[in-house]
Amino acid sequence: MSEGLRITADKETGVAVVTLDRPEKLNAIDLGTADELARIWRELRFEDSVRAVVLTGAGERAFCTGLDRDAEVPQPTSPFMVDDPLIRIGPKANDLWKPVIAAVCGMTCGGAFYLLGESEFIVADTTATFFDPHTTYGMVSAYESVYLAHRMPYGEAARMALMGTAERISARRAHEIGLVSELTAPGGALEAAVSCAAVIASYPPEGVQGTVRALWAAKEAARAQAFAQAPSLIKLGNLPTERQAELFAGRRTKGFRVR
User: Fold this and answer.
1) Which of 113, 129, 159, 167 has minimal Cβ neighbours within 10 Å of its Cβ?
2) Which domain holds residue 163?
3) Among residues 50, 55, 43, which one has the least CA distance to residue 19?
């Protein structure tokens, strides 16, 4: 098990809890954690005692802040190829069709949407905020924007992707627009998500998993077409890594608007 990830399972309820466990890094995903996430999703395909999963982040400050900026990811020079270490971190990308519920508190941004985009629904407490920093740092929000556009109204997804770090969507607003399905008091998201998961896990698993697959099929074709455009858009639109780092180093930690 990676130091950045832990999993617990309750065989009586059939619910497993997968926790991103790098609170000192705001649960940013390094390469080891990315590999471990993919491995866990694939192993859960064979664990019949687990019938529903809750995904959460350790600590109170963040659910996940995407890819760890210290991760070194060499890229091919071709404009048609991108090595994205997060593209395989979600359950659907690893052929897991057991329901996954995300329990969110604190900051959620960028590459976190690879995980939220492949969860069935999101439970958040009132401390949660959501934003996408890519454009601020001279990067294309490609895969993240596709996931967002499938989880919320187009105008809201576009605003989040384009406004970058200047705005954060509050948990209340996320609930109003349908990104979040249930809002809880601070610290209550995990308990509420586990409660939902236990109900779902009590049902016959074949019907549940078939329903998950049917729901995903409703948007799968459009997502695959959009993803096919992502590598060239990223290669054409991203600033050089050094310039991105300069913009990130000069970032403002205050002054953003929460709406």
Assistant:
1) 159
2) 5-185
3) 55
Indicate the burial class of 228 (C-beta count within 10 angstroms; 0-12, 13-18, 19 or more).
exposed
32 torsion bin: left (phi>0), alpha (psi -120 to 50), beta (else): alpha
Q: Coil, strand or helix: which one is 64?
A: strand
What CATH number does residue 86 fall under? 3.90.226.10
What digits encode the pLDDT tens for the residues 11-57?
Answer: 999 999 999 999 999 999 999 999 999 999 999 999 999 999 999 99
Is the Cβ–Cβ distance between 192 and 101 less than 8 Å? no
Rounded to whole angstroms, the Cα distance separating 27 from 19 reads 9
| DSSP one-letter code for 181 | S
Per the CB < 8 A criterion, the answer to whether 86 and 29 are in contact is yes
The answer to whether 122 and 89 have CB atoms below 8 angstroms apart is no
Report if pTM > 0.85.
yes
> Does any domain span residue 87?
yes
Phi, psi (degrees; rounded to nearest 5) at 116? -65, -35
